[in-house]
Amino acid sequence: MRDMMGLMKQAQDMQKKMADMQAQLETLEFEGSAGGGLVKVVMTAKNVLKSVKIDPSLMVQGEEEILEDLVLSASNDARNKAERSVQERMAEVTRGLPIPPGMKLF
Question: Across the strands, what pairs with 40?
């Protein structure tokens, strides 16, 4: 019975921490870049694209495909940084809880 009460308390604590973390994720921003910094994007941890900056030297007629690839690469870079950060934060929140390996909480 005592173990069950302790587990319930841990679950409630985790639920509060998860809500706090979700609120933080709304404000965390990550910068991704490509082409040696010629293309930069800023994305939130929730994968909302906030800004795109493109060096004017890349705006060459007939080379749109290169620019498109760089924008995609910079976006993927930012998304990967955000995902790593979310995973690290999730590990902190769930530390010590008996959660099966590989289980995704969100």
Answer: 33, 53
Residue carrying structure tokens 């302790």: 6
Q: Evaluate whether residue 46 is within a structural domain.
A: yes
Q: What residue has token string 């965390």?
A: 28
| Residue whose token pair is 């909302």 | 48
16 lies in some domain:
no
Q: What residue numbers bound the domain in which 66 lies?
A: 27-94
Instruction: Supply the CATH number for residue 79's domain.
Output: 3.30.1310.10
How many Å apart are CA 35 and CA 66, to the nearest integer? 10
**Side chain identity at residue 39, one-letter code:** V
Q: pLDDT, tens digit, for every residue of 20-57? A: 888 888 889 999 999 999 999 999 988 899 999 999 99
